[in-house]
Design goal:
binds adenosine monophosphate; 7 strands; about 45% helix; about 220 residues; 9 helices; five-stranded parallel β-sheet; alpha/beta
Length: about 220
């Protein structure tokens, strides 16, 4: 399965993408996570990306297209993958199609998690992240078992710099301007599946599995 997770920041792409990847035995590849790893490691790409990320802008297409080309060439992505947060622009979508077509592949499904803007703002304001494994939590809806520490590795959770309210508003605008329309790119092939993301994680997971036919 070659699946794209789509939807605005805070819609639940990471939470559900991670779980789906584990269930299907294919890598969950989140470009935001790949970039944060580069930033943390202080690589040239990380240094270049950080200024864009901190203000909520997109990292330039050429950087992203090359990053995905390299990641999808790794052996674990051969049988399938879940892409989360990519493609975010028309240029990225076109480049991805070309890359896959060269190998005789194509995207099988685009899963769009739909959550209204008011709920997104509320979700992102309560979001915390593990800086080590990048798992996301919500302090009210999906809190860690132990106060402010990651369930998986015990690391103290942090607030992402780009989850500050002003940056969140800007990120939502960038999403509306540049990414919401990218879904239409895939509509022509009837592979777009829309899921109402306004429910508990458990309920949304059930809806996703039904939509993708994984519940049988
Ligand atoms: P995310 O974790 O998906 O919310 O991504 C965090 C930030 O990383 C975004 O606000 C962008 O600055 C950058 N980013 C992630 N994916 C992409 C992409 N496909 N194209 C451009 N920038 C991206």
């Amino acid at each position: 399965m070659r699946l794209l997770m789509a939807g605005s920041p805070g819609a639940g792409k990471g939470t559900h993408g991670r779980r789906l990847g584990a269930d299907l035995g294919i890598p969950h590849i989140a470009t935001g996570e790949l970039l944060r790893e580069q930033v943390a490691a202080g690589t040239p790409i990380g240094r270049k990306a950080q200024e864009y990320m901190d203000r909520g802008d997109y990292v330039p297409d050429d950087v992203m297209i090359e990053m995905i080309r390299l990641r999808l060439a790794e052996p674990d992505a051969e049988k399938g993958f879940i892409l989360d947060g990519y493609p975010r622009t028309d240029a990225q979508a076109t480049a991805l199609d070309k890359l896959l077509a060269n190998e005789g592949h194509a995207i099988d499904a685009v899963l769009v998690l739909e959550v209204p803007v008011e709920e997104i703002v509320q979700r992102l304001s309560g979001r915390r992240m593990c800086p080590k494994c990048q798992r996301a939590y919500h302090m009210a809806d999906d809190p860690p078992k132990d106060d402010e520490c990651c369930d998986d590795d015990g690391t103290t959770l942090i607030i992402r710099r780009d989850d500050e309210p002003d940056t969140v508003r800007y990120r939502l605008k960038v999403y509306a301007d540049r990414t919401a329309g990218v879904i239409e790119h895939y509509d022509v092939d009837s592979i777009v599946r829309r899921v109402d993301g306004r429910a508990s994680i458990h309920e949304v997971a059930k809806r996703i599995d039904e939509t993708l036919g994984l519940d049988k």
